[in-house]
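Q: How do we represent a protein-ligand complex in a form that can be generated token by token?
A: Start from the inputs.
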Amino acid sequence: MAEDLPLFELKNVSVDYFLSGKSYRAVHNVNLKGHQGETVGIVGESGSGKSSLARALLMLEPISSGSIFFQGTDLQELSSSNLRKLRKHMQVIFQDPDASLNPRRTAGWHLDEVFSIHFSQVPSQKREELIVQVLHTVNLDQTLVSRYPFELSGGQKQRLAIARALLLSPKLLILDEPLSSLDAQLRKSTLNLLKTIQEEEGLGYIFITHDLSTLGAIAQKVAVMYRGSVVELARVHELYSDAAHPYTIALLSCIPIPDPQAERARKTLTFPQHSPILPVGTGCPFAHRCPYATAVCKQSCPPTQEISSGHFVACHYPCPNLIVRQGGSVSSSGPQNCIGPGC
Ligand code: SF4
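Then emit the structure tokens for the protein with iron/sulfur cluster bound:
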């Protein structure tokens, strides 16, 4: 594979859903790519289109427009049998591992099922060897193979789900809120496990979460989604230090501070709630919640602009100076006082 050939690439991808005879845009004109060994984080609140985007990448959701490439192959041009074969290289880990486990079957059965479905020609002795190997990779004891899902802890079930995905030798793992159902200690150990697997196997990850703080530990770059659009895309450390979209700044202001006094004292940026299924209008999708919206914002959709190398923002007034600092102080009162690019 050419060094700069992306593992996956979405070009101007849109997804529409239909409800009561009307169409609603779940994903709007998204451009995103990731390389082998890289983790791309996707963050946003519920209903922002994160999971719809992942399903579109897997071609489980029909796209209304745009193109999706995996290792340079246009997925829309593949026959359904070739698409099925290629999907083995793109595996998904969901938030709730129980949803993908049969409560009446043992852990060993779930692992062996992968061979029964995809590699039925593999002899049983070889299957056992591969299962032992993958259990070792995810730090699970071999004795667990005879246990049923209800006999496993949340962390063990999530590791079992990861083991099943790894048996298919994927190149891309889509991790859809994989830590949400785990306690703090299990989150940390699962995150470390994912990093180790990535280093050893060179996998690409798409890490979907509503918690921006998690991404600092695993992602190289982060796409912030709001109502189906990527409103900001940057390298993770740049996003933390120089977020330029008001919505990203609001998300950053919600990250808890491990100091009760500072946490109580700080102000967070809060915006009115919205319905995720509102049709997209012509203006900025964030305009009805943004405290800095102007008449221009309500009339025209902001184009995505590159405000520094690799840092893209869809805002008429990208404002890297509007930073919510530790303790909650806001260093600028908005675009009017901003000296950043575009203001
Ligand atoms: S374009 Fe206007 S409404 Fe949209 S995020 Fe920027 S300042 Fe707010």
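Residues 8-224 form a domain with the Rossmann fold fold (CATH 3.40.50.300). The radius of gyration is 22 Å.
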